[in-house]
Amino acid sequence: MIFSIVVHAPPYSSEAAGTALRFTEAVLRAGHEIYRIFFFADGVHNASRLTVVSRDEVNLQDQWRELIRKNELDGTVCVSSAINRGIVDAEEAERHELDGSSMHPEFEIGGLGQLIDACLNSDRTVSFG
Q1: Is 47 exposed, middle or buried (0-12, 13-18, 19+ CB in 10 A)?
Q2: CATH number of residue 47's parent domain
Q3: I want to staple 75 with a disulfide (CB 3.0 to 4.6 A). Which of 50, 57, 68, 108 is the partner?
Q4: Is residue 111's pLDDT more than 90?
Q5: Which residues are part of the catalytic machinery?
Q6: Residue 111 CB: number of other CB atoms within 10 A?
Q7: Bridge partners of residue 48, in order along the sequence
Q8: Phi and psi for 97 in degrees, rounded to 5?
Q9: Domain region containing 108
């Protein structure tokens, strides 16, 4: 079965982002495929490379990044949501004349068309947050 995951929740305001991560890991362990993980609204904060997490806390941003890298997943961050929340890749930072990128390079900026594409090319789209 092919899944797409939509993450609306930021990493530390609720359990939704962590639940989405664990669900995605379970889907992969069960032998299913992830077509795309789409980070939308406050969920774009999961792609931030500027968050500093205490050593005794779970670093969800690093866990998402590692999951995407290790499994060669498509981790797409909604461009409108991201820019409004200060999450930008190098290209967007340059375009908006900002000092630098605030997004982990494992993620990519995309639009709502990629969310529609994910829904059309997946057997199930599961939303968290």
Answers
A1: buried
A2: 3.40.1260.10
A3: 68
A4: yes
A5: 78
A6: 12
A7: 103
A8: 55, 50
A9: 2-128
79-102 as b/e, with b when 16 or more CB fall inside 10 Å?
bebbbebebbbeebeeeeeeeebb
Q: How many domains does the chain have?
A: 1
What tokens appear for 124 in the block?
A: 């199930």
Q: Cβ contacts of residue 65 below 8 Å, gap of 6+?
A: 104, 106, 107
pLDDT tens-digit map of 39-98: 999 999 999 998 888 889 889 999 999 999 999 999 999 999 999 999 998 898 899 888
Q: pTM score > 0.85 for this model?
A: yes
What's the Rg (C-alpha) of the chain?
Answer: 14
